[in-house]
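User: Could you go from structure to sequence for me? I need the amino acid at each position, not a summary. Structure tokens:
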């Protein structure tokens, strides 16, 4: 049975603050685009791509190292590359920011090749309410560790969601690892 992998304190609070500052500097755009149309029922968040953040190479180095470690310890998947930029997301209580149950594997050329999803909790859990990252690996829903800097890894086909923010703001950083599509 596939599992959820957790790396506590993968990033320090200072690292997390630096990443959110870079994301804000890169300019946030509304997310939740499905076939070119905004789909706020599915997702309400703003995003920025790590590839658009000058000086963000160290972040990608750390993320890829974490992904490799998770795959070595837990999954043993055939991974070939990181075909998409990591994505920083901001969910706000004012807009009830959320991401409804979904799988990260889609029909697009890149999304079809996603194998593992890694999500870093960039915010201090005392700074927001709601915004829980929940993953559904089996008959029980897994609540990802909310601690700032924790990295959570799971197979990209696994259903997961972010519950609506009810106070404050939550930042996350997501990276996908790619390989031959699951079959
Ligand atoms: O923000 C999160 O915690 C999850 C993001 C996510 O599921 C995604 O980008 O596909
Ligand atoms: Fe996702």
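Assistant: Here is the amino acid at each position, in order:
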């Amino acid at each position: 049975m596939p599992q959820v992998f957790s790396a506590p304190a993968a990033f320090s609070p200072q690292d997390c603050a630096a990443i959110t500052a870079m994301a804000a500097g890169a300019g946030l755009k509304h997310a939740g685009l499905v076939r070119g149309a905004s789909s706020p029922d599915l997702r309400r968040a703003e995003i920025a791509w790590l590839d658009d953040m000058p000086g963000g190479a160290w972040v990608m180095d750390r993320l890829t190292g974490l992904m490799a470690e998770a795959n070595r310890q837990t999954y043993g998947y055939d991974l070939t590359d990181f075909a998409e930029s990591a994505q920083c997301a901001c969910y706000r209580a004012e807009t009830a920011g959320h991401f409804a149950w979904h799988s990260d594997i889609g029909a697009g050329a890149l999304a079809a090749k996603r194998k593992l999803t890694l999500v870093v909790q960039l915010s201090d859990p005392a700074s927001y309410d709601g915004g829980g990252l929940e993953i559904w690996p089996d008959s029980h829903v897994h609540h990802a560790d909310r601690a700032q800097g924790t990295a959570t890894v799971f197979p990209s086909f696994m259903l997961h969601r972010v519950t609506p923010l009810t106070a404050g703001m939550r930042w996350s950083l997501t990276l996908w690892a790619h390989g031959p599509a699951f079959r």
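One structural detail worth keeping in mind: The CA atoms of residues 16 and 92 lie 17 Å apart.
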